[in-house]
Automatic annotation (TrEMBL):
<dbReference type="InterPro" id="IPR000711">
    <property type="entry name" value="ATPase_OSCP/dsu"/>
</dbReference>
<dbReference type="InterPro" id="IPR026015">
    <property type="entry name" value="ATP_synth_OSCP/delta_N_sf"/>
</dbReference>
<dbReference type="GO" id="GO:0046933">
    <property type="term" value="F:proton-transporting ATP synthase activity, rotational mechanism"/>
</dbReference>
<dbReference type="GO" id="GO:0016020">
    <property type="term" value="C:membrane"/>
</dbReference>
<keyword id="KW-0406">Ion transport</keyword>
<keyword id="KW-0066">ATP synthesis</keyword>
<dbReference type="Pfam" id="PF00213">
    <property type="entry name" value="OSCP"/>
</dbReference>
<keyword id="KW-0813">Transport</keyword>
<comment type="similarity">
    <text>Belongs to the ATPase delta chain family.</text>
</comment>
<keyword id="KW-0472">Membrane</keyword>
<protein>
    <submittedName>
        <fullName>ATP synthase subunit mitochondrial</fullName>
    </submittedName>
</protein>
<keyword id="KW-0375">Hydrogen ion transport</keyword>
């Protein structure tokens, strides 16, 4: 509740460049607004990046914050103690305490990821995930990066590209850039052909 109230007070002065939806998205919007109002975006971004890395690295800590049998108040005090020892910004501590008290610590990774997407948008950047059936040579990657620039929306200035491999695509690629998804994989073409054949029999 406290974070949502803070988010509403801050939003008019520090509206996020993109609005995230769903419960994790609403928390992310509020964290961004609170951090922007206090000129603490860089600090909070660093805090949340470190927290995510720490949770991934420590199975014990991950279990502590996501185990539903552990009281919310215990989680809140524990996460605040951890963040205090790491000299985290007060916005980060308040945000995670509110997340714990609201019983939403199981969404912590989604909240952080949503927040990072807002930060990326604020920088005029957009993330692109290119998935191919086999590793692509560097010259093909460069050509794809050059083509992705044409998909940028107004206010976007840079594409951050991540290349992945998924053998189930058979051949071709899929591209996810911002809210756009392009599928040029053989697997999808085969599925469409299979569906067409079934309906024509």
């Amino acid at each position: 509740m406290a974070l949502r109230m803070l988010g509403r007070r801050s939003m008019s002065a520090a509206a996020a460049p993109v609005t995230k939806f769903g419960t994790p998205g609403r928390y992310a919007n509020a964290i961004y607004a609170a951090a922007a109002q206090k000129n603490a975006l860089a600090a909070v971004t660093d805090d949340l990046s470190l927290l995510k890395e720490t949770l991934k690295a420590s199975a014990t800590l991950h279990h502590f914050v996501t185990n539903p049998s552990i009281p919310r108040e215990t989680k809140a005090s524990g996460i605040v103690k951890l963040l205090t020892s790491a000299k985290a910004d007060v916005v980060t501590k308040n945000a995670m305490a509110t997340l714990a008290e609201g019983g939403r610590m199981h969404d912590v990774f989604k909240v952080i990821d949503n927040y990072m997407e807002i930060i990326t948008a604020a920088k005029g950047e957009v993330n692109a995930v290119i998935t191919s059936a086999a590793p692509l040579p560097e010259e093909e990657k460069a050509a794809i990066r050059a083509q992705l620039v044409s998909f940028l929306d107004k206010g976007q200035t840079k594409v951050e590209s991540v290349f992945k491999v998924d053998a189930s695509l058979v051949s071709g690629i899929t591209v996810e850039i911002g809210d756009k998804f392009l599928d040029a994989s053989v697997a999808t073409q085969l599925k469409k052909l299979h569906s067409l054949l079934k309906t024509s029999i």
